[in-house]
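cron nightly-structures :: item 1 of 1
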Amino acid sequence: MALPMILLASIMALLGLRFAAYAAIPVSMLFFTIPIWDLTVGPLQDLSTWVVTIWLQWTGITAHIDGYIITLRAGAFEIAEGCSGMR
Protein backbone atom coordinates (compact mmCIF):
# COMPACT_ATOMS: atom_id res chain seq x y z
CA MET A 1 0.00 0.00 0.00
CA ALA A 2 2.96 2.30 0.52
CA LEU A 3 4.36 1.82 -3.00
CA PRO A 4 2.42 4.71 -4.62
CA MET A 5 3.47 7.04 -1.80
CA ILE A 6 7.10 5.95 -2.13
CA LEU A 7 6.90 6.60 -5.86
CA LEU A 8 5.44 10.05 -5.29
CA ALA A 9 8.09 10.88 -2.69
CA SER A 10 10.79 9.75 -5.12
CA ILE A 11 9.35 11.95 -7.87
CA MET A 12 9.27 14.86 -5.46
CA ALA A 13 12.88 14.30 -4.39
CA LEU A 14 14.20 13.91 -7.92
CA LEU A 15 12.07 16.32 -9.96
CA GLY A 16 10.74 18.80 -7.42
CA LEU A 17 7.52 19.71 -5.71
CA ARG A 18 5.86 21.29 -8.76
CA PHE A 19 6.25 18.16 -10.92
CA ALA A 20 5.17 15.97 -8.01
CA ALA A 21 1.95 17.99 -7.78
CA TYR A 22 1.25 17.23 -11.45
CA ALA A 23 2.08 13.56 -10.95
CA ALA A 24 0.00 13.14 -7.78
CA ILE A 25 -3.25 12.12 -9.49
CA PRO A 26 -1.74 9.56 -11.91
CA VAL A 27 0.39 8.08 -9.13
CA SER A 28 -2.59 7.93 -6.77
CA MET A 29 -4.46 5.84 -9.36
CA LEU A 30 -1.98 3.08 -8.59
CA PHE A 31 -3.98 2.45 -5.41
CA PHE A 32 -6.69 0.89 -7.63
CA THR A 33 -4.20 -1.74 -8.84
CA ILE A 34 -3.57 -3.06 -5.33
CA PRO A 35 -5.46 -6.33 -4.70
CA ILE A 36 -6.63 -5.12 -1.28
CA TRP A 37 -9.60 -3.52 -3.05
CA ASP A 38 -10.97 -7.00 -3.77
CA LEU A 39 -11.97 -7.17 -0.12
CA THR A 40 -14.69 -4.59 -0.82
CA VAL A 41 -16.48 -6.70 -3.45
CA GLY A 42 -18.69 -8.55 -0.93
CA PRO A 43 -19.82 -5.45 0.95
CA LEU A 44 -20.46 -3.63 -2.35
CA GLN A 45 -22.59 -6.56 -3.55
CA ASP A 46 -24.51 -6.40 -0.27
CA LEU A 47 -25.02 -2.66 -0.72
CA SER A 48 -26.17 -3.11 -4.34
CA THR A 49 -28.62 -5.83 -3.28
CA TRP A 50 -29.97 -3.64 -0.49
CA VAL A 51 -30.48 -0.68 -2.86
CA VAL A 52 -32.26 -2.86 -5.45
CA THR A 53 -34.46 -4.27 -2.68
CA ILE A 54 -35.45 -0.78 -1.54
CA TRP A 55 -36.19 0.33 -5.10
CA LEU A 56 -38.31 -2.75 -5.75
CA GLN A 57 -40.29 -2.10 -2.57
CA TRP A 58 -40.84 1.54 -3.55
CA THR A 59 -42.14 0.56 -6.97
CA GLY A 60 -44.32 -2.24 -5.62
CA ILE A 61 -42.73 -4.95 -7.77
CA THR A 62 -42.95 -8.40 -6.21
CA ALA A 63 -39.54 -10.03 -5.94
CA HIS A 64 -37.86 -12.90 -4.14
CA ILE A 65 -34.32 -12.14 -3.03
CA ASP A 66 -31.97 -15.01 -2.24
CA GLY A 67 -28.45 -13.77 -1.59
CA TYR A 68 -27.36 -11.94 -4.72
CA ILE A 69 -30.04 -13.50 -6.95
CA ILE A 70 -33.22 -11.46 -7.41
CA THR A 71 -36.17 -13.28 -8.93
CA LEU A 72 -39.02 -11.38 -10.54
CA ARG A 73 -42.03 -12.68 -12.49
CA ALA A 74 -40.21 -11.94 -15.74
CA GLY A 75 -37.05 -13.78 -14.72
CA ALA A 76 -34.09 -13.70 -12.41
CA PHE A 77 -30.90 -11.69 -12.32
CA GLU A 78 -27.79 -11.80 -10.22
CA ILE A 79 -25.74 -8.97 -8.79
CA ALA A 80 -22.35 -10.32 -9.87
CA GLU A 81 -18.96 -9.18 -8.64
CA GLY A 82 -18.43 -6.97 -11.69
CA CYS A 83 -21.79 -5.27 -11.14
CA SER A 84 -21.25 -4.48 -7.49
CA GLY A 85 -19.75 -1.07 -8.19
CA MET A 86 -16.14 -2.12 -7.95
CA ARG A 87 -15.44 -2.38 -11.69
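cron nightly-structures :: done
The chain is about 50% helix and 10% strand.
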